[in-house]
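Lecture 7 notes: from sequence to structure.

We start with a single chain of 147 residues. Read the sequence below before looking at the structure.
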Amino acid sequence: METFLKPEVVWFVIGLILIMMEFLTPGFYVIFFGLGAWAVSGVSLFAEMPLTWQLALFLVSSVLMLVFMRSHLQNLFGVNTVNDMDEKDEFIGEEGVVIEKITINGMGKIELRGTQWAARANSDIEVGTRVRVTARDSIRFTVEPLN
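Now the structure, written as tokens:
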């Protein structure tokens, strides 16, 4: 059991968990904290450090990798940025159906491509009304009723 509590093993496992979490979160950020944890794990193999130094190394290495490597890795893997998605948004103009009433300047839900999405509108829209997507803000759509 002592083997699993060594700092290099603990940091390696933390890094592995963070890297796996990258697949569940958008934005291409979490992976750099996983790599930072692996950096601490690697240093811990060769040098004994107090926890405060380990945490400092984790923070510094993670932030430096994030700042200097993120854009390069995004280009390498073809990850779109938010601005790229806005310019080429495939949902704009698509039609869906309201499944939860949308209130004026409030939120409701639509079904689009077989998936439920949060939606807002500039007017009340009743359940069952067909709508067209006019804009997208992250995972929320702005819609208008079809006439």
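Residues 51-77 form the longest helix (27 residues). Keep this in mind for problem set 3.
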